[in-house]
Amino acid sequence: MFDNKTVLISGGTGSFGSQMLKSLLKTKIKEIRILSRDEKKQEDLRRSIPDKRVNYVIGDTRDFNSTLSSTKKIDFVFHAAALKQVPTCEFFPMEAYKTNVSGTSNIIDASIQNNVKKIVVLSTDKAVYPINAMGISKAMMEKVAISKAREIYSKKINCKICITRYGNVMSSRGSLIPFLINKIRNNQNLTLTDPSMTRFLMSLDESVELVKEAFQNGKNGDIFIQKSPAARIDNIAKALLIIFNKKNKIQIIGPRHGEKIHESLCTSEEMSRAINLKKFYRIPADLRNINYDIHNKKNAIFNTGESYTSNNTKMLNLNQLVPILKKYCF
């Protein structure tokens, strides 16, 4: 599906972008274009993956001209550029809005103008029932993507926009597990906000698999969710101590700005219409226009049940966590 195609990865020097790049290079792809703002990360990636099919573009999704230039002669776009640290977004919410909402709008508009065939936008569990600026900005990002999917559907434009939504990616830069590993290696206390907090867990490979699933099978406006296990954060810390054979003290410091006890990947309203695909849920978009009077088809009545949360999914215990963390984090 990627033979002789050109692909753009925005935010391509991040954890997901780097993994997606490695996966795409195993195909007969023509070109992979990496768009990001950080020249140091680009140089590091260029040196670690010396492949002539990879081209690097310094640019910013906040700047429409930058997105317009970088999407020229591109077949497919994977949009991963984001501000995603919860406390950072709490203190700088307008910056989160500029990158996560305006930047996404720019990428999609530029892609449509340049006849891109498919766009996959990466979202997060924090966009579901959002209580923090990061989650609110990502929820708005999803709404922008679905709105534009509805627009191109009504105008019969040859482009599809899909969304993927997932929880914590193990070993991704700036996430909990690398933070704790660094503390263990430096013989410091493991600072946890609330031991009863639960978080979804998935590997980098699984995040790429989810995006490919949306890319291959998604219809306009679809949201794809991978069914993922979860764990309490105190058990994650204890499992890492077992792996390292260390006895660092666990220190409880209380929740940070904007943190939830449990995360959600799917609302109860979305679950009422979600399509079960074994490993995934597909949530189809409502592509009707705003003139409801002209729509004669009766919509399904909501049969709301539980939302899909990190507290009611499969919960990994300590013994289950140790081999999983060994496999995906080292």
Main sheet attributes: strand count, strand direction, barrel closure: 9 strands, mixed
The number of helical elements comes to 11
**CATH C-level category:** Alpha Beta
Number of strands: 16
The CATH architecture name reads: 3-Layer(aba) Sandwich
Oligomer: single chain
Termini separation (Å)?
Answer: 31 Å
- Percent in strands: 15-25%
The CATH superfamily label reads NAD(P)-binding Rossmann-like Domain
- The spatial strand order of the largest sheet comes to 3-2-1-4-5-6-10-15-14
Mean pLDDT: 94
Q: Can you tell me the CATH topology?
A: Rossmann fold
- Give unreliable regions as ranges: none
Query: Based on helices, strands and strand pairing, what is the structural class?
Result: alpha/beta
The 3D shape can be described as: globular
Measured on Cα atoms, how large is the radius of gyration? 20 Å
Number of domains: 1
Helical content stands at 25-40%
Order of helices and strands: EHEHEHEHHEHEEHEEHEEHEEHEEEH
